[in-house]
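Can you please make up a whole protein chain along with its backbone structure tokens because I've never seen that pairing?
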Amino acid sequence: MMPHARIPDFSQPLGSVAPDADCTSFHLDPILTAVDRHSEAWSVFQAAPDGEGAIRAEDDADSALMALLGTPCATRGGMLCLIRHLRWFLVEEAPNATAHGDAWAFAQAREGDLSRCLGVEPVRRLPMALPSGRLLGPTIDLRPPLPPARYVRRVLAAAGELLTAIAIVAGGSVVTGLASRI
């Protein structure tokens, strides 16, 4: 018996899941319910008439957003759905960003974290302020492109270093081989 091998139990019918199963179906991901709830609350808020109904709809949309941001993703598909929804929300609600308060920053951070986790796209970083007051921006190469002559010189220098390294390694192995025969 191989205790390290995980052999599935085929004695159960296809529709049932063992209670100790450590896999989650895509459709059981709690984030999908939270995304649906937030989409519905946002749509109701957009269609709500002015007055008391709009205030209640806004409160429902804000609570749905906070619930969405606090809901864990159980599957990779759920993560991708949440990224797509948050990107849509951040673009759609950009003019009202200050009205959302901390939830806006949380939404941006969650979208950035999930994007980085899944490798969907590089995270755009804001400049960081040093104690001296100087800003360290994202790593963007602002140097002008090298003229062709400098480029050729750099390539030749790198090729020379490579040939030198190969000669040293090959020479060392030849000397070692000769020394072991004596």
Notes: Residues 16-21 have pLDDT under 50 and may be disordered. Helices lie at 30-47, 52-70, 76-92, 97-100, 102-118, 148-181.
